[in-house]
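Onboarding guide, step 5: your first structure request.
Type a short instruction followed by the sequence, for example:

Predict the 3D structure of this protein.
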Amino acid sequence: MLSVLVPLLRRDDELQILTGTLSGTYQSTGEGKFFFTMMAAFAELERDMIRERTLAGLATARADGRVGGRPTVISPDTLAAAQARRLRGETPTQIAKALGVSRATIYRHLNC
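The system replies with structure tokens like these:
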């Protein structure tokens, strides 16, 4: 956030907040510069805290055995059938159509 702020301060731009308790115009000198810097610091702090909490939550979920993302559409039985069909020489397109899954799924699981 500060990387965005510094060029604005150098150009003597001003910040105009239209609504809320902080509404008004802030110059890029003196008190306005202080306000710019403090708001940027708070925004950066909040972003870092959100990131840390998200990573901690993901680590806790992984430790509990939960994995994010969509569930797989290939069961062990379906995968075995796909592997057998591939060994018989069927193309990934034919296997996908026969098993009712996408061709990308077949490529992903069989490493074609």
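Each response can be followed by summary notes, for example: Residues 2-63 form one domain.
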